[in-house]
Design brief:
This protein is of the alpha/beta class. Helix 3 runs parallel beside helix 6. A 6-stranded mixed β-sheet has the order 6-7-8-3-9-10, sandwiched between helices. The chain has a domain of 129 residues: Rossmann fold, CATH 3.40.50.300. The protein is globular and about 45 Å long.
Length: 239
């Protein structure tokens, strides 16, 4: 049996008076790709910001590698090995590719290890190496997405959180991003994925969770969710 890497137990998160996550519980095991499915406003991004400490839960607990990280600061959570590529990419447009990547390693001190991570990112994304002196704001959408994922990889994550990595990309680039996610996963990085392209996300995932208005309404092996009538109607366009 694989080790449990992350566990959310009865997590309740609020934005002011808005109850965004209502008793969310989920588990992620080492080496998995797990997809969160749900419509806009279902609580998917809030789940990620609760895990990373950006929007700490009001109650419930988040356990990473057996340690309770519910009240930890974001910088400490990243140090522990949780990387995030946010929705909308959010690269620093006035910094170069190289400066963006180095910003992703801000919690690390060993120059040797940072160089190793940089080499690994350039191996995954040769395009970034070609463009390393270019300003991030001048990159194409696909290249910015590579940079956002590459920057998240610079903290040497054990768990990589990806929020809508294919959003706004052309179909051929979508396929490329999904292949890269699989490749990253094969290097031993566990992946938690939010993706509007639910059908494609479930194809590469081991398991999935369906969120509706802040609650987990369904979970199971990805293939079971892909063939579930309700999921197909609501999220897969009967694909």
């Amino acid at each position: 049996m694989k080790n449990k890497l992350l566990e959310l137990k009865d997590v309740n998160t609020y934005y002011g008076s808005i109850h965004a996550l209502k008793g969310v519980s989920m588990e992620i095991y080492e080496g998995e790709i797990v997809t969160l499915i749900g419509s806009n406003g279902a609580g998917k991004s809030t789940t990620l910001s609760s895990i990373t400490g950006l929007t700490p839960p009001q109650s419930g607990s988040i356990i990473f590698e057996g340690k309770d990280i519910t009240k930890e600061k974001s910088a400490n959570i990243i140090k522990m090995g949780i990387g995030i590529s946010p929705e909308g990419r959010e690269v620093f447009p006035t910094l170069t590719v190289m400066e963006n990547l180095k910003a992703g390693a801000y919690t690390r001190t060993s120059k040797t290890e940072i160089k190793e991570s940089l080499d690994h990112v350039f191996e995954l994304f040769p395009r970034l190496q070609e463009r390393k002196k270019q300003y991030a704001g001048t990159l194409s959408g696909g290249e910015q997405q590579m940079l956002a994922i590459g920057r998240a990889m610079m903290c040497k994550p054990k768990l990589l959180l990806l929020d809508e990595p294919s959003l706004g990309l052309a179909p051929n680039l979508v396929e490329m991003i999904f292949k890269l996610i699989m490749r990253i996963n094969k290097t031993g990085v566990t992946v938690m994925l939010i993706e509007q392209n639910a059908n494609m996300a479930l194809q590469i995932s081991d398991r999935g969770y369906v969120l509706e208005t802040g609650k987990v309404t369904l979970s199971g092996p990805a293939e079971d969710l892909r063939t579930n009538d309700e999921v197909r109607k609501a999220y897969l366009g009967n694909a």
